[in-house]
Automatic annotation (TrEMBL):
Residue ranges occupied by any Methyltransferase domain in the UniProt entry: 40-135
Signal peptide range: none
Keyword Glycosyltransferase (UniProt): no
UniProtKB keywords: Methyltransferase, Transferase
InterPro entries recorded: Methyltransf_25, SAM-dependent_MTases_sf
Organism: Nitratireductor pacificus pht-3B
A molecular function GO annotation: methyltransferase activity
CDD domains: AdoMet_MTases
Pfam family, one: Methyltransf_25
Gene3D superfamilies: Vaccinia Virus protein VP39 (3.40.50.150)
Name assigned to this protein: Type 12 methyltransferase
Membrane-crossing segments per the record: none
The keyword Transferase appears for this protein: yes
Length: 253
């Protein structure tokens, strides 16, 4: 099963990207959503790394994720801070809410987990339908050049007496489909003994800037702008590590 974020994967993610750890994105999203006049939805909310700081900043947040383990981390961290935990177990392809949103945000390249282009375009249309007239979509993407990047080195994390390790091995890379498939091997060790192992297939699709702009237009978005490395109003440079698109759902009914 691809991109499933099971128990060990969610644990490693929570150690590697704890609540509030920023890559420039938390300040960016806090500023872009300041004064937002309605609820904000974060699909693929994960452990709440960005979601919780936005809640703490007074933004009316909702979120969902396809991983029960990730949702459990997010709810636990909200409870520890005395915050509400308006997060649900849902998927990109089928999420549904009775209310409509002032903004939908997809930080950290999470949209790239949708690897089929037709499905991805359908998800963009679903975002459009979830927004109020004039609502904003904000999406982070990794650069297309990342398609050629080598897998990351083996890594490890300590959590008390527990040692968590991660090894990434390439499975397939398609330049025509703009996708990379890797096998992630998570291991949990204690006192030198292997406690548990988890294998995940991690699949990502990368987008060209013009390609994604056209996909947004096809989904009904207007006023599309893009910046690099969380510098709003600045055109992205060639070596930008992150591209962020903002678009307006003008004319939603």
């Amino acid at each position: 099963m691809e991109n499933r974020y099971g128990s060990l994967a969610a644990w490693v993610y929570h150690l590697d990207k704890p609540i509030g750890r920023s890559f420039g994105d938390i300040a960016f999203y806090t500023e872009r959503l300041s004064g937002c006049d309605g609820p904000v939805l974060e699909p693929a909310v994960g452990n709440g790394r960005i979601f919780i700081p936005l809640l703490e900043a007074g933004i009316d947040m909702r979120g969902f994720d396809a991983s029960p383990e990730m949702i459990a981390h997010c709810r636990k961290e909200c409870a520890l801070r005395g915050l509400p935990a308006p997060v649900d177990l849902q998927r990109f392809e089928t999420f549904s809410y009775a209310e409509r949103f002032a903004a939908v945000i997809v930080p950290a390249g999470s949209f790239q987990l949708v690897t089929d282009p037709e499905t991805a375009c359908a998800v963009l249309r679903r975002f459009h339908e979830a927004l109020r007239p004039g609502g904003r979509l904000i999406v982070d993407l990794d650069p297309l050049s990342s398609l050629a990047a080598a897998p990351g080195a083996a890594r490890q994390w300590r959590d008390g007496d527990d040692l968590l390790t991660l090894r990434e091995d390439p499975v397939a890379r398609s330049f025509s489909r703009q996708t990379v498939l890797s096998q992630l091997r998570y291991e949990h060790w204690r006192d030198g003994a292997l406690v548990a192992t988890e294998l995940d297939l991690f699949h990502l699709r990368f987008w060209g800037l013009l390609e994604f702009r056209l996909a947004l237009r096809e989904a009904g978005f207007t006023d599309i702008v893009v910046c690099g490395d969380y510098r709003p109003g600045t055109p992205p440079e060639e070596d930008a590590a992150t591209f962020t698109f903002e678009a307006v759902a003008a004319g939603s009914e």
